[in-house]
Structure formats: structure tokens, C-alpha cells
């Protein structure tokens, strides 16, 4: 049977049981874009301007909503308008890491009410399966999807080896809500015990640490190219932040647009090569 590495986004969308995963795969196919832009800026105006510029070229916007200094809920309403206008999904990169009861509150409530607007979010597997139970109690009724952090892009990351394998086993035990991983490579069949089979599991792999012009940021971040990530490592979505909006919070919309187009093209080309090489 073909693994998700060899299948098109469209055929995976048809088969996926989770609504948020399906919506993302359909968006990728419709827009011919596996590019997610990570918008880590501290002012509402910069945040919304960058998203409006890159919107046509992306399948997903990744947020860290807690870094917005002048946050009020209207920024979420604007973000949702842009999501409709440009046809992209939303992923709050919250990296939950606490006991089930606490993460359920953090996900549903507080100032940000993440579950109400973010199609995808993520969690560290470090607390064990109860973190999934807690988040699913909020997210599943809303049709949301969860990604586990199986690996990180940073130098010296501890999320390797047995930890990564346990993360995949945790995901495998909750296929209704956990749709995949933040990771640096495909996870098909990782952590299977003797006699177990991967069946028709289809984990989405979203990958940060993507850059075409630099190898790192001097603070531990490590960059690989879209080709290395999508073609060589079999990941599904490239996540790009500063490579697109630069050092000046995306002050020059033409430069931001040009970079978004460039990364979209590179990511899609790598996917097409992957499919061609395996079909
Ligand atoms: P950059 O500007 O492309 O380096 O931003 C990368 C984004 O992805 C940033 O929001 C990080 O918080 C996020 N990230 C990451 O870089 N590496 C990881 O392993 C994980 C998230 Br998980």
C-alpha cells in the first residue's frame, strides 16, 4: 500500500477522518501551496498587514498570539476575515505542556480562547496521554485537530530517539484528534512494536526551521531548504517565519509578497518532485 509519502494531498484529503486535517489538505491542493507562514510580530497592525499580503500564497497561518502587545479580541475577528478572504487555515503554535485539566482551560478560556478560532494547535507529549484527553475534551466537539511535538528544529533538542517514538505511539492511540506532528521528517511506522502494523495511518508533518538564505539565527534555530524538508525528509507543510517577513516586521509589502511567492514555489516544486519520483 502506498504510504502518505507517495500520495497526493488530494487523495489524502478524501480519506482523512479528522475535519481539520481534511480542510488543511484540501486547502493545500486547491491553492497549490504547502506553505505556512509563521507571523511572530508584536503589533496588531504588522500582524494583519503581513497576513493580508501573504494570504494568496499560503495554506496556513501560524500564530503566537501571546506575543501581540496590543492584543484585543478584534485582532482575532480580523484574522478570521482574512482567513475567509484568502482561504487559509489557522494554527496557534501554543505548545501546551500541562495536566489535562489545565490545558483544557488554557485552550478554551483566558484572554485568547484559542479553541474558538484556531483550527489546529499543538502540544508537547511530555505529560503523557492525559494532555490529549484534556485538549480533546475542548477541541473535538469543535472539529479541531492536534499536532504533537515529536521533534524540534533547534540545536541540541531533547525530542529525539525514544521520546519521539513515544510521541508517535501517543498519537496512534488518539487518531480522532491527533492529526500529526511538528517534526523534521516523516513518522510513518515510527515506534511500531513487533507484530504491530501502521495500517492506513496518515500523519501530517508540519516542519519549522525552513529558510533559503541562512542556516541559523544565532539563537539555536537551524534552517533547511524546502527541498530538503519536503522531498528528502517527506514533510508535508513548510513553516517559514523571518525568511518571509524579514527583520523589519514586514515593513515592505512587495518584499514580503516576493518571498512568499518564492517559498510557495519551492515548496510546491519539491512536493511535485516527490510525487513524480514515487508514482
Ligand atoms: P522562523 O522565523 O522561520 O525561525 O520561525 C519559526 C517559527 O516556528 C517560530 O514561530 C517558532 O516558535 C516555531 N518553531 C520552530 O522554529 N521550531 C520548532 O521546533 C517548533 C516551532 Br516546535
TrEMBL record:
Family matches, as SMART domains: OMPdecase (SM00934)
One MF term in the entry's GO annotations: orotidine-5'-phosphate decarboxylase activity
Domain of life: Eukaryota
Catalytic activity: orotidine 5'-phosphate + H(+) = UMP + CO2
One Gene Ontology biological process: 'de novo' UMP biosynthetic process
Keywords, comma-separated and alphabetical: Decarboxylase, Lyase, Pyrimidine biosynthesis
PROSITE patterns xref list: OMPDECASE (PS00156)
EC assignment: 4.1.1.23
Residue numbers binding substrate: 40, 62, 153, 221, 241-242
Residues in Orotidine 5'-phosphate decarboxylase domain copies: 34-263
Protein name: Orotidine 5'-phosphate decarboxylase
Amino acid at each position: 500500500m502506498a504510504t502518505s509519502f507517495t500520495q497526493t494531498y488530494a487523495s489524502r484529503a478524501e480519506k482523512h477522518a479528522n475535519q481539520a486535517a481534511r480542510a488543511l489538505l484540501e486547502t493545500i491542493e486547491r491553492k497549490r501551496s504547502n506553505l505556512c507562514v509563521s507571523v511572530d510580530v508584536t503589533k496588531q497592525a504588522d500582524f494583519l498587514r503581513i497576513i493580508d499580503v501573504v494570504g494568496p500564497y499560503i495554506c496556513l497561518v501560524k500564530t503566537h498570539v501571546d506575543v501581540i502587545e496590543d492584543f484585543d479580541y478584534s485582532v482575532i475577528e480580523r484574522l478570521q476575515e482574512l482567513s475567509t478572504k484568502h482561504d487559509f487555515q489557522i494554527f496557534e503554535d501554543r505548545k501546551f505542556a500541562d495536566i489535562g485539566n489545565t490545558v483544557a482551560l488554557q485552550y478554551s478560556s483566558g484572554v485568547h480562547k484559542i479553541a474558538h478560532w484556531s483550527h489546529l494547535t499543538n502540544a508537547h507529549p511530555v505529560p503523557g496521554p492525559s494532555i490529549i484527553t484534556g485538549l480533546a475534551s475542548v477541541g473535538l466537539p469543535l472539529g479541531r485537530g492536534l499536532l504533537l511535538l515529536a521533534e524540534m528544529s533547534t540545536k541540541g533538542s531533547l525530542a529525539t530517539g525514544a521520546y519521539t517514538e513515544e510521541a508517535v505511539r501517543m498519537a496512534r492511540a488518539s487518531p480522532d484528534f491527533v492529526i500529526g506532528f511538528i517534526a523534521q521528517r516523516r513518522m510513518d511506522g515510527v515506534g511500531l512494536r513487533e507484530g504491530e502494523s501502521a495500517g492506513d495511518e496518515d500523519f501530517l508533518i508540519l516542519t519549522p526551521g525552513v529558510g533559503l538564505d541562512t542556516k541559523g539565527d544565532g539563537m539555536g534555530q537551524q534552517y533547511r531548504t524546502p527541498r530538503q524538508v519536503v522531498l528528502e525528509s517527506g514533510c508535508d507543510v513548510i513553516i517559514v517565519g523571518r525568511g518571509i517577513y524579514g527583520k523589519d516586521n514586514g515593513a515592505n509589502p512587495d518584499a514580503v509578497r516576493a518571498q512568499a511567492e518564492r517559498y510557495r514555489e519551492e515548496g510546491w516544486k519539491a512536493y511535485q518532485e516527490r510525487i513524480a519520483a514515487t508514482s
